[in-house]
Amino acid sequence: MSSASVSKIALWIDGREVEATGGRCGEVTDSATGEVVKLVPFGSVDDVNVAVASSLSSWTAWSLTPPLQRARVLMRARDLLDQRKEELAKIITLEHGKTLADAVGSVQRGIEVVEFATGIPHLLKGEHSDNVGGGIDSHTLKQSLGVCAGISPFNFPVMVPMWMVPVALACGNTFVLKPSEKDPSASMLIAKIFQEAGLPNGVLNIVHGDKETVDALLAHPDISAVSFVGSTPVARYVYEKATNSGKRVQALGGAKNHAVVLPDADIDGAADALIGAAYGSAGERCMAISAVVAVGTVGDSLVQRLQARAEKLLVGPGERDGVDMGPLISRDHLERVTNYISSGVSEGATLVLDGRNVDVPNGGDGFFLGPTLFDHVGLDMTIYRDEIFGPVLVVVRADTYDDAIEVVNQNPYGNGTALFTRSGAAARRFEHDIQVGMVGINVPIPVPMAFFSFGGWKSSLFGDLHVHGAEGVKFYTRTKVVTKRWPSSSEVVDLTMPTIK
């Protein structure tokens, strides 16, 4: 299908679809076939200005809407999202490539954040202290910021926007979303669902685009806060550029998530868990386990089990029954990941399983790569140092628990990690020793539930606050302290610092 014959996605501004003004656009492909299925416009500075102006004009009324009424809109949106979960998942599978079951699961995790956000009125309560001074009371107000912006990645086109949008809206903000240009269609359906739920026009706007669009959002004077999820270099860029513009920023970056396997672990159970954590969604998850630290004598038996399980995985189009792993997002990304595999071989790692040889019946021109497994990987090798973001699992050997902890803690990333053990003492020590933001004990992908906050440490996060949960509420509100008294008679002028008497 030629790009000239495919439909073009619109922007969503002020409650309706509108055409972009800039004339630039990109191609959205079916990752399983390589076919162009849609065109996505790249919003211009003028498009961003119109979207932000719409959100700004809607902010006052929305922020003054009682929190419970805002929550009721989210309640209706939650029900509609649940009803159309399969439809959203099919859009994800078409444009991203992940299996339908995996896509449904990611939509469900997004819906759970909406469920959390319906309870945010409870978290917007301030504090009150009576008689902090003679006849003086103090209390706090939690108020919205104004217009917030979100820049979301390709790997979770529903779940990650749901980390941002419902929390921001529940706190009384309006929102401009810039979804990934690689799989933008799901965000448009989300906007329509929120409108059907009763969200006023202009409270949520969507502008598709590329770096030019992002830069316009980061520099816009009427945007108060920016949320971002993506690679570490871009997260650092977003953080620096937006904070220089006086904005509050949470920028979640990349990862090199380690799983430490101790000799006393259930090796079969650990292998089963690691297969799903490493190769699910073709490894295109910021919480994917991409490095295993095998401690002591466990290495050989663990690698044998990983190889045996990985060889049985079925690779193919995500909508096919029985498929375990779909394609990568794009041809460029496929080339990037295969280059990493070649680098691992040239640098001396043991290639146990080569995904470049994957056979996909009727795979067409899709961006397929099979599960790949390396053993005896050195910490100086490129396949260990870099975030590959594909179905490549590397195994590092460590002699002792302390050596394993040093391996994890010296890594510049600190997003997620896991420990496999039967020892409660070792697990408790691991929780305290490890310098990582999200920790799993015999849980390979420790993605927190919506009422906890999601975020890493070190180069995996730029900013002070994580997404969703209580920290998300803190991010999307600012606190005002009011100190007041009601004098009963005229006062004597006093120029000294007020103190408690």
Report what the structure shows:
- The longest helix is centred in the first third of the chain and has 20 residues.
- The mean pLDDT is 96.
- This protein has 15 helices and 23 strands.
- A hairpin with a 2-residue loop joins β6 and β7.
- The protein is α/β, with parallel strands linked by helices and 501 residues long.
- The protein has a seven-stranded mixed beta sheet with strand order 15-16-17-14-13-19-20, sandwiched between helices. The protein has a six-stranded mixed beta sheet with strand order 10-9-8-11-12-22, sandwiched between helices.
- The chain is globular and about 85 Å long.
- The protein folds into two domains: 273 residues, Aldehyde Dehydrogenase, Chain A, domain 1; 185 residues, Aldehyde Dehydrogenase, Chain A, domain 2.
- Helix content is 37%, strand content 22%.
- α3 packs antiparallel against α6.
Brief synopsis:
This protein is α/β, with parallel strands linked by helices. It is built from 15 helices and 23 strands.
Structural class by helix and strand composition: alpha/beta
In round numbers, the mean pLDDT is 96
Uncertain ranges: none
Head-to-tail CA distance between termini: 80 Å
Q: How many domains in all?
A: 2
Strand content: 15-25%
Count the E strands: 23
Strand order of the largest sheet: 15-16-17-14-13-19-20
The top-level CATH class of the largest domain is: Alpha Beta
Instruction: Give the C-alpha Rg.
Output: 25 Å
Helix content: 25-40%
Assigned CATH architecture of the largest domain: 3-Layer(aba) Sandwich
Shape: globular
Q: What is the CATH topology of the largest domain?
A: Aldehyde Dehydrogenase, Chain A, domain 1
